[in-house]
């Protein structure tokens, strides 16, 4: 990867490690999953479309609206509310661990849709190890609790969207400026979420913590993150871009334990290790050359 690719990778590892904490704070304070998602995407779309307009890049969307809409539904409109709904039943730490399965789903989808990302040999072994981790996590920590099983299912469905959407971005929107592509996608998602958001709007003003969480989710974890993420995908490819999910759960688990006093069961620990190991192998199981040359340098 280039130095720019590594910079984007580091930024995304941090930026997408923190949303689960803020989502948990907001939904626990009574903000509905759909209303949370609408505010988040509406705020981000306004910022990105303004930047795209000032940069004069909105014309790049001409003839691509079908794919922009498809990306909006698969990456944003469905996953965002599903994850927030799932966090009504499970911890932010468990959510992040489940999202770490996204590279495994990418490898699985690639068997049919993207030969460049297809898992064979060692990558196929990683796929099996990773999904074993999901089974261990669900079987030990979640099984027997209907609410947690529901939350887990919602988050895993969202993970499928996160895995499929980058393939659309890579194939159909590669030439579109990130501000225009992401701003338009978020605008479409806002429109789709508007009506259900109105019906699920809070009856009282949300708490200060919830409002702060919505602002961070909209401006940092959505507007900034989606632009950086598109650059990362185009720079290194969908499979390797999603290696950020190796570090996201570590950040999220640390925040959940330190700030929200969440605890990890044996299944969560074992599942996390297996998922991360499987994800690593399923996206090659090798350190990129640039990192191999520098990894021995002392801190």
Automatic annotation (TrEMBL):
Domain spans labelled EamA: 7-138, 150-282
Membrane-spanning segments: 7-27, 33-53, 65-83, 89-110, 122-143, 149-169, 181-199, 211-234, 241-260, 266-283
One Pfam family this sequence matches: EamA
Record's bilayer topology term: Multi-pass membrane protein
Annotated keywords: Membrane, Transmembrane, Transmembrane helix
Regions annotated as coiled coil: none
Subcellular location: Membrane
Main location (coarse class): membrane
Family: Belongs to the EamA transporter family.
The protein's name: DMT family transporter
Naturally occurring in which organism (per UniProt): Solirubrobacter deserti
């Amino acid at each position: 990867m280039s130095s720019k690719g590594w910079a984007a990778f580091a930024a995304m590892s941090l930026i997408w490690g923190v949303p689960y904490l803020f989502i948990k704070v907001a939904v626990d304070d009574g903000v509905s999953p759909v209303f949370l998602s609408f505010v988040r995407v509406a705020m981000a779309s306004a910022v990105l479309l303004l930047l795209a307009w000032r940069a004069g890049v909105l014309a790049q969307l001409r003839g691509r609206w079908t794919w922009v809409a498809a990306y909006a539904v698969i990456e944003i409109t469905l996953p965002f509310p599903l994850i927030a709904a799932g966090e009504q039943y499970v911890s932010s730490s468990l959510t992040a661990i489940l999202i770490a399965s996204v590279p495994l789903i990418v490898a699985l989808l690639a068997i049919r849709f993207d030969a460049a990302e297809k898992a064979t040999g060692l990558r196929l072994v990683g796929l099996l190890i990773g999904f074993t981790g999901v089974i261990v996590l669900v079987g030990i920590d979640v099984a027997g609790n209907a609410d947690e099983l529901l939350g887990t299912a919602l988050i895993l469905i969202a993970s499928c969207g996160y895995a499929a959407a980058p393939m659309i971005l890579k194939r159909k929107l590669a030439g579109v400026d990130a501000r225009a592509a992401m701003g338009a996608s978020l605008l479409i998602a806002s429109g789709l979420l508007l009506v259900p958001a109105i019906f699920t709007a809070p009856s009282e003003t949300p708490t200060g913590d919830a409002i702060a969480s919505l602002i961070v989710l909209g401006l940092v974890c959505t507007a900034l993150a989606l632009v950086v993420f598109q650059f990362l995908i185009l720079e290194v490819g969908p499979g390797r871009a999603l290696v950020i999910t190796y570090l996201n759960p570590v950040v999220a688990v640390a925040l959940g334990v330190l700030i929200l006093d969440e605890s990890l069961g044996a299944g969560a620990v074992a599942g996390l290790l297996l998922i991360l190991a499987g994800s690593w192998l399923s996206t090659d199981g090798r350190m990129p050359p640039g990192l191999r040359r520098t990894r021995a340098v002392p801190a």
